[in-house]
């Protein structure tokens, strides 16, 4: 899980995101769903940030606004809007 709008991970905004979570125990919880990163609390004000960072990744980024959740159950993956 990638959280860029969290005070604990704000320093990631200037990080090469392709290397995050690869052996660094400080970010061990970021790889919760293989092949996906998440940007919670997403709004249009973060569009430029997400677009600029996701190009350097080798996987998809799921943006979640405050009314959404993402369900993972084995191979089943589902975006839930409330």
Descriptive notes:
The protein has one helix at 47-54, and strands at 36-39, 60-63, 68-73, 76-81. Strand 3 and strand 4 (76-81) form a beta hairpin. The chain has 1 helix and 4 strands. Strands 1-2 form a two-stranded parallel sheet. It is mainly beta and 82 residues long.
The portion of residues assigned to helices is under 10%
Spatial order of strands in the largest sheet: 1-2
Report how far the terminal alpha carbons are from each other. Answer: 21 Å
State mean pLDDT (0 to 100 scale). 75
Summed up, the domain count is: 1
Count of alpha/pi helices = 1
Beta-strand proportion: 15-25%
Indicate the overall shape: flat
> Secondary-structure element order, as H and E?
EHEEE
What's the total count of β strands? 4
> Residue ranges: pLDDT <50 for 5 or more in a row?
1-5
Question: What is the CA-based Rg, rounded?
Answer: 13 Å
Largest sheet: 2 strands, parallel
Briefly note the structural class of the backbone: mainly beta
Ordered list of secondary-structure elements with their pairings:
Blueprint: E1 36-39, H1 47-54, E2 60-63, E3 68-73, E4 76-81
Parallel strand pairs: 1-2
Antiparallel strand pairs: 3-4
